[in-house]
Write a structure and sequence with these properties.
292 residues, alpha/beta, Rossmann fold, seven-stranded parallel sheet, globular, binds nicotinamide-adenine-dinucleotide, oxidoreductase, SDR_fam, NADP, Oxidoreductase, NAD(P)-bd_dom_sf
Length: 292
Amino acid sequence: MAEFQGKTAVISGGAEGIGFSIARAMGAQGMNIVLGDIDPVQLEKAVATLTAQDVPVLGVVMDVTQPAQWQALARQASERFGNIHMLVNNAGVGGGTGTVEQISERDWRWVLDVNLMGVIYGTQTVVPLIKQHGEGGWLINVASMAGMVGVPYAGAYTATKVAVVGMSESWFAELQPHHIKVSVLCPAFVQTRINLSERNRQAGYQHAEDATEQDAAIAARMQAIIDNGLAVDVVGERVVEAVRQGELYIFTHPNYRKVVQQRYQAIDDAFARAADSPLLASVLDEDIVGFT
Ligand SMILES: NC(=O)c1ccc[n+]([C@@H]2O[C@H](COP(=O)([O-])OP(=O)(O)OC[C@H]3O[C@@H](n4cnc5c(N)ncnc54)[C@H](O)[C@@H]3O)[C@@H](O)[C@H]2O)c1
């Protein structure tokens, strides 16, 4: 508990689902919690719940795709609690599902802007503040099992989650000298309202009426899978456990290990074939630069 006690966590998309589960768990560790979320109604409920549990909490209505709103959130967080120590880039949407032809440019933009640019803007706003005070801290990015293995018919979502895993690996090394520990959470299915992400689609990303019907059909199909997912409360507790252990990759579904192993095996097999290629013999003994 001591390492988190009295410190401040900013959690995007913290009003419900996985973000709120992390907020609850970090609040129970004695942290001050700042929730940023696009949904004012859910946000108010989340603030009330944490307040009733004696967690010091601030709710800020914001859209992670807007850098100025990140700046405003950081200002309010600092005014209320002083230094920020932890950023949880959690806000995300489960859009962009379908075939190559079905995922429209609007869908791509929406998913890329929320799931990828939202993480970038959050990190660019908050990490410099953690660096400045010099007390160290944590950067926790919420990716997905889709960041480990490409999911069929989910090209846009997969692209963002692979990117979040990659950025986390990159920042892990970069931020080590600043005593900022980076973790990336990669859950499979969790019982949240991710299948109803359309509720959070901002006006600028609206798409055609027939696509809306398609979204509703996908949401309905996803419901049963989500209903069988992991109970959301476990996820926050698991994040506390893994962050304490200094994990870079945080997994919540050990049963998916074999799926990731199959991918690594396929990659390793492809390397073996490249090593056997007479075209590449001269590269085999060259030094590796830039990757450590
Ligand atoms: N539920 C799962 O099965 C699952 C699995 C793997 C990864 N994830 C990831 O977990 C994260 C949280 O998703 P969840 O499952 O809790 O979904 P959720 O829909 O229950 O919660 C998402 C939260 O983010 C907020 N939000 C959405 N767009 C926003 C925006 N532009 N700006 C600010 N807030 C915004 C929503 O209002 C909501 O409070 C996402 O990044 C998602 O991709 C979820």
